[in-house]
Amino acid sequence: MHSYYQLVFAGSLAIFASATSANAAKQAAPAPRAPQFDWETVPPSRELQFHDCYDAFKCARLEVPLDWLNDSDTRTATIAIKKLPAVVSDDDHTFGGSIFTNPGGPGGSGVRFIQVEGHNLQRYVDKPGRRHYEIVSWDPRGVGYSTPVSDCFRSNIIARDAYLFEYRGNGGLEQGDSTINHARAMVKGLAQRCESVEEQEGAGMAYVNTPSVARDMVEMVDKIDELRRREAAERTGGEPRIELKRRNGEEDRNVPRLQYIGFSYGTVLGNYFASLFPGRVGRMVLDGVFNTEDYANGPGWLANLVDTDEMFDKFFDGCHKAGPSSCALAIESDSSASEIKSRFWSWVVGLDEAPQPVLSPSGSTIIITGNDIRGIVVGALCLPIKAFKPMAETFHQAMAGNASNLVAIMEGSRIIPRLQDACPVGNATAPPSILVEAQSAVLCGDGDDISDKDNAWWHKYIDHQVNISKIFGAYWTNLRFTCSSWPFRPNWSFKGPFRTPKPDPNLVAGRPAAPLLFLSNRLDPVTPLRAARAMAANHPDAAVIIQEAMGHCAVGTAPSQCTKKIVADYFETGEVPSEETACEASCGPWADDCNVYESSAGFGGGSRGWSWGWGGTASWY
Ligand SMILES: *[C@@H]1O[C@H](CO)[C@@H](O)[C@H](O)[C@H]1NC(C)=O
Ligand SMILES: *[C@@H]1O[C@H](CO)[C@@H](O)[C@H](O)[C@H]1NC(C)=O
Ligand SMILES: *[C@@H]1O[C@H](CO)[C@@H](O)[C@H](O)[C@H]1NC(C)=O
Ligand SMILES: *[C@@H]1O[C@H](CO)[C@@H](O)[C@H](O)[C@H]1NC(C)=O
Ligand SMILES: *[C@@H]1O[C@H](CO)[C@@H](O)[C@H](O)[C@H]1NC(C)=O
């Protein structure tokens, strides 16, 4: 799926979302291309200059130091920034400034994210006639159109696909030593490839982890502020008032401050930012919350799956209640959800024991395993309103012997690479997707060094994950497993504490201007509510909003005027509810006509999407 548009949509979610046509071949076809833009036409500069791009957007490339900690190091990184202008001009009294957003990952592209979600997000935070924002996102260093690029296959898609095929063919890590050994060798081989690229093209991998990205955000906030002052001065014919004092950082209460909404890994980034630069926080919404302590310390990534299995049980409950007319896995004669559940699991266990070959609509022979089904399930758990019904239909068909929809979903979601993607169309070079090594560079660099762990350690780690989630534990292990041989250690790491001083709305130096606002669905398959509560506890006055819905992240997974109002009010006033607050969703996954954004035909969280392959190609947005 290297067409630009589908990359944003990378994931079974997107495929499910379009599955209503029930035409497998059509689903597998590339989605229409989004407008293209040649970033090379934008000269990187230390001062921001925006250029028209992608129809309604503005793009800029900002040059920043590669190493923020070493003044005598002259190497640079270039950050690709893209913004959706506000619906009013900057000098309108309702203009509310920039809201930055990060879609997650790590390794996710903000440039692609706001192409699809920018307008939805803007409608979500704007208060018509009263408050209007521009939405700003960027490709973090290492990702997409920013440099350095963490691409150890150097755009060789065939080599990358071959790696993914071999990794997948090796099987799930829960299978024991021979699988672990082979996977370790593969991950190590990838690391060697990265080292060889760095030898030839210069270092990058050690400078793309989260503290450096957070520092880039400070720079972007400053540069956007400077630009706005320059433009205001041009309008009025006066001198730009650039307060040089703020170069001294936290000393000045009038420093420009960040307004931010981060999703998934974007909550890690937000938490690092707030903890490192508390005096730069204007507003911060963290939605789909990671436990950042767990992310940065110890074995890592063990706090994500605590609600996953419970949520999957809810799928069966809902399916049973909805009945066969809405949920294809249900049978009229079922007396309880557990009958559906046991039919499903005996099918999956059967595939574990005897994987099935299927000729895909694109002509490839695909071997379907139980792990493929688990991967698809968790993809659907991320966005139930769009995915539950089509998933039930797809599994129903496959259980009855017709797997054509199933393989289309597997190809579309990159559970397996789709080989025809390896042929470039026309002259276009495929834009980089979430690359496993771009993800590793961030998550391995942020986490503790586990490159010296032996098989016994990994067995224990895998057991631990499987104990937490039967459906997803083994699969999830692949993310951290990419660090089993990761050779690059960042100079700048940050291990917490992830906390901020008490906020002060009177803009006091070194303090956030508002408390942090945390959002979570009641049940989230990969960023559970309890992580939101744990993180909020370390930020004074922070609030947790629970959206009574299921899915990964609250915004864009279920419609709730209540959540929307709290978020929009917060951006305007900086105020959060004084206690943990529950927000009802207006409809759910089994309703006939439920849009994730009320009153909009929006794309929903699916474009935060997720792509899921093997070999740590798991990519979370
Ligand atoms: C990181 O870089 C800074 C500045 O160059 C240096 O003072 C420090 O010793 C380095 N730290 C590590 C762990 O290498
Ligand atoms: C800082 O950068 C200079 C110039 O590249 C280099 O010689 C020096 O070793 C660097 N210091 C550290 C601590 O990395
Ligand atoms: C299998 O399912 C697909 C998609 O629903 C359908 O188009 C196709 O005709 C089915 N094939 C058979 C042999 O029933
Ligand atoms: C493809 O590349 C050729 C040679 O560089 C060029 O003449 C042609 O215009 C390009 N086609 C497109 C569609 O960009
Ligand atoms: C996993 O659960 C089993 C059974 O409850 C237990 O024996 C084992 O110690 C657990 N392993 C880990 C690593 O938590």
UniProtKB/TrEMBL annotation:
Matches recorded under InterPro entries: AB_hydrolase_fold, Pept_S33_TAP-like_C, Serine_prot/Carboxylest_S33
Recorded GO MF terms: hydrolase activity
Entry keyword Signal: yes
Protein name according to UniProt: Peptidase S33 tripeptidyl aminopeptidase-like C-terminal domain-containing protein
Keywords: Hydrolase, Signal
Protein family: Belongs to the peptidase S33 family.
Range of residues in the leader sequence: 1-24
A Pfam family of this chain: Abhydrolase_4
Residue intervals of the Peptidase S33 tripeptidyl aminopeptidase-like C-terminal domain: 470-583
Lineage top rank: taxon: Eukaryota
